[in-house]
Write a structure and sequence with these properties.
The complex is a heterotrimer.
Chain A lengths: L3 E6 L11 H9 L4 E7 L5 H14 L3 E6 L2 H13 L8 E5 L1 H5 L6 H21 L6 E4 L3 E5 L3 H12 L3 E5 L14 E2 L4 E2 H14 L3 E4 L2 E9 L2 E8 L14 H5 L3 E3 L8 E3 L1 E2 L11 E2 L5 H5 L4 H5 L12 E7 L1 E4 L3 E3 L16 E3 H8 L20 E8 L15 H15 L4 E6 L9 H12 L2 E4 L2 E7 L2 E8 L4 E7 L1 E6 L1 E3 L3 H8 L11 E3 L3 E5 L4 E3 L9 H18 L4 E4 L4 E3 L9 H5 L5 E4 L4 E4 L9 H5 L5 E3 L4 H12 L1
Parallel strand pairs in A: 1-2, 1-3, 3-4, 6-7, 6-18, 7-10, 18-31, 20-27, 21-22, 21-27, 22-23
Antiparallel strand pairs in A: 5-32, 8-9, 11-12, 12-17, 13-14, 15-16, 19-28, 24-25, 25-26, 29-30, 33-36, 34-35
Helix pairs in contact in A: 1-5, 5-18, 6-7, 6-15, 11-12, 12-13
Chain B lengths: L1 E4 L10 H14 L2 E4 L11 H4 L1 H18 L4 E3 L2 H16 L1 H11 L9 E3 H17 L8 E5 L8 H4 L9 H8 L3 E2 L18 H17 L4 E4 L2 H9 L7 E3 H9 L5 H4 L7 H6 L4
Parallel strand pairs in B: 1-2, 1-3, 3-4, 5-6, 5-7, 7-8
Chain C lengths: L11 H11 L11 H5 L10 H9 L3 H5 L3 H4 L5 H5 L6 H14 L7 H17 L4 H12 L4 H12 L13 H13 L2
Helix pairs in contact in C: 1-7, 8-9
Classes of the chains: A alpha/beta, B alpha/beta, C mainly alpha.
């Protein structure tokens, strides 16, 4: 007979406030093979673990159940504790009586206590049949894929590459930089963002350890932490990048103009163009949807003028296969479309623009060369309204969260506006001001003091066009007055939302997103840069709205986490994987087809299906699909599961 | 030791006993107070409400008189006068245009060397508590006192530069040195509303009522203060009968100086019962 | 609905004027309400100190000038001592009162105004404040003959604390000059 130990955690009042832990410990202690049953306020604490270690030593236990929180939290902690006493760690199991019992049954204390007992009994059944197992060592590919070439991806790539790791950097657009390339100056120091960004981007371009793929997307991913197989789709730029010198002759001569998205609709660009002036890489790209050669074959101007013969109309998109050990998702953000905001004019009022459009207006390389003018008539706006929290903090209709950067960039916008138009009056509608990072509050107070910004605490009810003006109706709750401003121009601080396509990308990576499409981290506090899928890491606004400082910090944190992961050749993996009863397997091959990790293969000699232990992630798909019940999962075998179910139904 | 002395208007009227006790105590301490010649009203506490310039020039004339007297630092008993003099001093010291304007109107040249000190500051930091203690003949043993500072001596701290504006201690320290027991309470710097004493007596009654009842709740048998307006207001607008002393009166009791009877009869709430029961009369 | 102005413009001239005259940086106010929280007379004001600052920012000259708040301030300086942005509301209130009188606004708290005036007049007459003549002037002008105001005066008189005759300075001419200059300067 086994000698089992049961250790019940109070988790402060989290468990003990609902479950009568003393009575549970006492009742479980009466089970025949339970040699030790006790409770303690925090089992995960050092004295708590000491109780477990001592019991193993003194009672000679050969199986342990810790009844506490989710195994995601402390399974590792307790397995390490039993291992220190010479017990095989896989003989220690967690009975989750917090998330699955006390938290959800706070109002039914008696029932919760009974359920906790049953959960522990079920887990005891599992432990009775558990085998001693050894961790599996898997070879690791020490290269990293970074998806997204904004400041997050650039930072993570450089940190990793400087640490000696090979990096593959993917960017969907033809050049690096992301939204940061659109910004004029940055808060809180009003530092021009562009120069610093470009120098980082060219570092990336030149770095011997970084393989840069712009105009590229991740088409397919297979594998798991340490061993991902990728297929990259490199779109056709129709320009031979090796030959193009970025001289710009083709752009000058191109006859086709269309509205530039980079300039947020306020400028035009050519069918062959640079992504933005001075972009990295500084190579021209043909937009085939606008180019006359591709539309009707009527124009060859660029090919004719290019001194380097770099134009390549026949270039085709490429599929590139790569292997990496870890992936950084740095996919960034987009602004909530103003076309969907009714009370702000549905995007139909030309002088109502969003924050990024105003950034382009302020940028010296932008459509107005940095001059603030009304898009409708080019006049300098004298009455300027800035509206914060547009579609942010509005759970009923739009986004419930705070977009975090708007308070500060609005203060920055109003400051720059006031510097450029000293006789103009900026009004800022706000709900409250969030200026919680280093130097932000000081920046804000200084600008209010020096620039005479008028902050109106309240929301705007309507924005409409009237006689050449944009009328803004709102309220100032500090005086309780309704206010109306006949503005010349309005800048909306619209909510940050995840970039389009993130959901599809996350699905490929088997990473999860929240209901707004932001990638979810493994733990908001303890594992903020890890996704819930091993080997997939997060950086930047794809995870949640954040400013440049936080983005760069998070990207560096991600890079250092990955360096730790890839610091060894071998990765230890849980041995809780599938195995095959060779006597029963008929070699039908259903498991081979169903396995998402390519861990199952037919052994044609023996006519059976085998398991590649390095590839198997223990997902259980093959076990469920095997018509002969020839597959089992280590330490979750059918007889164990059935015994556990029995506990609950009898 | 010698100080020039600015008695202020209420010295001859509403805070008669403040002036009388001050003179007796200083005599006992052997420190001379030289009243500045032909002083005028400093303007406290209403002038600033309607005429800022006047509220600076009136005290400035007294500063000019103190300068020419050359009788040492200017000691000011009344908190209101002190605050007005310090505000004028602040402009004279730190605002050149303001200084020129005042100098021109009053007709003098400001000398920054003149120190302006609250009377209590003189006692604590110039004469010193050791010297006071030496002279104590009748320690105020067991007398529970709430030390009330009010507004003008501690606020604004950058101008009065006297003590912590939220929890000042100088009166408490002085009372301890006399053997009394200062109580801990949190209304020692609350405003008593004296400015509105005549125009809004109901409002002031509430303000005073709060201060006095909180002192009583803290176990105080009496309140001591260094402000003429506060003393009058606290006596006039309370209805619990808690005696209000000028701190110099309690010093006078401890130093057992002469002619104290002359002070007690000026009080609206006679402190004699308390003094008797405490064995101090 | 109230419009900020017909042109949609806040009258920032009021803010600038008050800031200049008082020397207080009112645009720094972020409405933490520390001033109002500690103000002993705020419960009796029509607008609280923080509201007054906001109304100045919004250019509401008339409402500010005709408020009772500017008269209820007793200059205890609790606000100024605690303001995180170093705004001295006491000084601000002094400035507003002076401006209101100069601009001919009606004092919402007539009696407080009359009392302050009576005090200044009494100082102007002889160089030193004299309670009896001051109270006489106040009571006659305000017609405030309530027992609550009168009674303590009588008691103090009986206690020998309110002398009948004023104490006068010798330099009456100097005082007169100061009064003239300080009123003429404006």
């Amino acid at each position: 007979m086994k000698k089992l130990g049961v250790f019940i955690c109070h988790c402060g009042v989290n468990i003990a406030g609902t479950v009568d832990v003393k009575s549970v410990a006492e009742k479980i202690g009466k089970t025949e093979d339970v040699a030790h049953s006790t409770d303690y306020i925090y089992m995960c604490s050092e004295p708590g673990q000491q109780i477990i270690r001592e019991a193993i030593r003194e009672k000679g236990l050969d199986g342990v159940v810790v009844a506490c929180c989710s195994p995601n939290m402390h399974e590792n902690t307790f397995r390490k504790a039993v291992k220190s006493q010479g017990m095989n760690p896989y003989l220690c199991e967690i009975a989750n009586i917090r998330e699955q019992c006390s938290w959800v049954h706070q109002k039914e204390k008696g029932e919760a206590t009974r359920k906790a007992e049953e959960i522990i009994h079920a887990t005891l059944e599992k432990v009775r049949k558990n085998e001693s197992l050894e961790a599996i060592a898997v070879a690791v590919n020490r290269r990293v894929l970074v998806v997204g070439g904004g400041i997050a991806g650039i930072t993570a790539s450089l940190d990793l590459a400087d640490g000696g790791y090979e990096v593959i950097l993917l960017e969907r657009e033809p050049a690096l930089g992301g939204h940061m390339a659109q910004l004029s100056k940055t808060f809180p120091d009003l530092d021009p963002a562009f120069g610093g960004l470009l120098s980082k981007a060219s570092e990336v371009e030149k770095h011997p350890k970084i393989q840069l793929h712009c105009y590229s997307e991740l088409e397919d991913v297979k594998g798991f932490v340490g061993n991902f197989d990728l297929v990259i789709r490199q779109k056709a730029t129709s320009v031979n990048g090796a030959k193009c010198t970025g001289c710009g002759l083709c752009i000058e001569n191109c006859p086709v103009e269309y509205v530039s998205e980079f300039e947020r609709g306020m400028g035009i660009r050519k069918a062959i163009d640079m992504p933005y002036p001075g972009s990295v890489p500084n190579k021209a790209v043909i937009n085939r949807q606008h180019c006359r050669y591709f539309l009707d074959g009527s124009c060859h101007r660029c090919e004719e003028v290019c001194p380097e013969k770099a134009i390549d109309y026949d270039q085709e998109e490429e599929r590139i296969s790569e292997k990496v050990g870890a992936v950084v998702v740095a996919t960034g953000y987009e602004l909530y479309p103003k076309e969907q905001l009714g009370e702000y004019g549905y995007g139909e009022i030309p002088d109502v623009i969003d924050g990024l459009a105003f950034e382009r207006m302020l940028a010296p390389n932008g459509p107005t060369k940095g001059k603030i003018v009304r898009p409708s008539d080019g006049k300098v706006p004298k009455e300027m309204v800035f509206i914060q929290c547009v579609a942010s903090r509005d759970p009923d209709r739009y986004m419930p969260y705070c977009s975090r950067i708007c308070c500060m960039y609005t203060a920055k916008h109003a400051t720059i506006y006031k510097e450029q138009v000293p006789d103009g009056q900026p009004y800022i509608f706000y709900m409250d001001i969030r200026s919680d990072c280093k130097g932000y509050e000081e920046f804000l107070q200084k600008t209010i003091e020096e620039k005479g910004l008028l902050y109106l605490r309240g929301r705007v009810s309507r924005v409409f066009q009237d006689n050449g003006k944009v009328r803004v109706l709102g309220v100032d709750t500090l005086t309780g007055k309704m206010v109306e401003v006949a503005a010349d121009m309005v800048v909306l601080a619209t909510a940050i939302v995840p970039s389009p396509g993130v959901k599809e990308l996350a699905a490929k990576l088997r990473a999860t997103v929240d209901r707004h499409g932001f990638l979810t981290e493994a733990h908001i506090k303890l594992y903020p840069v890890e996704s819930s899928t091993k080997g997939i890491y997060l950086a930047g606004c794809g995870q949640s709205p954040k400013d440049i400082s936080d983005t760069v910090s998070q990207a560096s944190a991600t890079a250092s986490k990955i360096q730790a992961l890839l610091s060894t050749d071998k990765l230890l993996q849980d041995p809780l994987i599938a195995f095959v009863d060779e006597g029963i397997c008929s070699g039908c091959g259903i498991c081979v087809e169903i396995c998402p990790y390519e861990a199952r293969e037919m052994d044609s000699h023996r006519g059976i299906s085998i398991v590649h232990s390095a590839l198997c992630q223990g997902c259980g798909a093959c076990i469920a699909s095997c018509p002969n019940f020839a597959c089992e999962l280590r330490n979750s075998a059918s007889n164990q599961i059935l015994k556990m179910v029995d506990t609950f139904v009898t | 030791m010698k100080f020039s002395y600015f008695p202020g208007c209420t010295d001859h009227s509403s805070s008669l006993e403040y002036g009388l006790s001050t003179h007796e105590v200083f005599k006992a301490l052997g420190v001379e107070l030289v009243e500045i010649e032909d002083w005028n009203c400093c303007g406290a506490a209403a002038t600033h409400s309607l005429n800022r310039l006047l509220s600076l020039c009136l005290p400035a004339r007294n500063i000019s008189k103190a300068q020419s007297a050359q009788a040492g630092p200017l000691a000011v008993p009344c908190a209101g006068c002190f605050s007005y003099l310090k505000r004028a001093e602040n402009v004279l010291k730190n605002d050149e245009a303001g200084r020129k304007e005042i100098e021109e109107i009053v007709g003098f040249t400001y000398q920054p060397s003149l120190e302006i000190l609250a009377l209590v500051d003189v006692i604590l930091n110039r004469i010193g508590l050791e010297k006071v203690q030496e002279k104590v003949k009748k320690p105020l043993n067991g007398l529970k006192v709430a030390c009330y500072y009010g507004c003008a001596l501690v606020r604004h701290p950058k101008i009065t530069q006297l003590d912590d504006p939220e929890n000042p201690q100088y009166l408490d320290r002085l009372m301890k040195s006399l053997g009394a027991e200062p109580v801990e309470w949190s209304y020692k710097v609350d405003c008593c509303g004296a400015d509105l004493a005549m125009t809004y007596p109901k409002v002031v009654k509430k303000m005073v009522g709060k201060i006095v009842s909180m002192a009583k709740e803290a176990g105080a048998q009496c309140i001591t203060t260094s402000c003429g307006l506060c003393q009058m207001n606290l006596e006039m607008r309370q209805d619990v009968g808690l005696p209000i002393f000028y701190f110099t009166e309690l010093m006078g009791v401890a130093l057992d100086v002469e002619k104290k009877e002359n002070w007690w009869k000026r009080h609206l709430i006679s402190p004699k019962g308390l003094l008797k029961s405490s064995g101090l009369l | 609905m109230e419009t900020m102005t017909s042109a949609g413009k806040v009258d920032s001239s009021f803010l600038k004027e008050v800031e200049k005259r008082s020397g207080e940086k009112l645009s720094l106010c972020y409405q933490c309400l520390k001033c109002t929280a500690g103000c002993p007379t705020a419960p009796y004001m029509d607008f609280r100190p923080n509201n007054i600052v906001r109304m100045i920012q919004m250019g509401m000259r008339k409402e500010v000038m005709e408020s009772s708040a500017i008269w209820f301030c007793v200059y205890c300086q609790t606000c100024g001592t605690r303001c995180p942005n170093e705004i001295h509301i006491g000084i601000l209130m002094d400035t507003l009162r002076e401006m209101a009188m100069e601009e001919g606004f009606h004092a919402k708290e007539k009696n407080i105004h009359l009392f302050h005036e009576a005090f200044i007049h009494s100082v102007g007459r002889g160089g030193r404040a004299h309670e009896v003549t001051m109270l006489m002037e106040y009571m006659l002008k305000s017609r405030d003959l309530m027992a609550d105001s009168l009674f303590p005066g009588v008691i103090l008189f009986l206690k020998g604390k309110f002398p009948l005759l004023p104490s006068l300075v010798h330099g009456k001419e100097e005082i007169k000059k100061i009064f003239e200059r300080c009123t003429k300067e404006k």
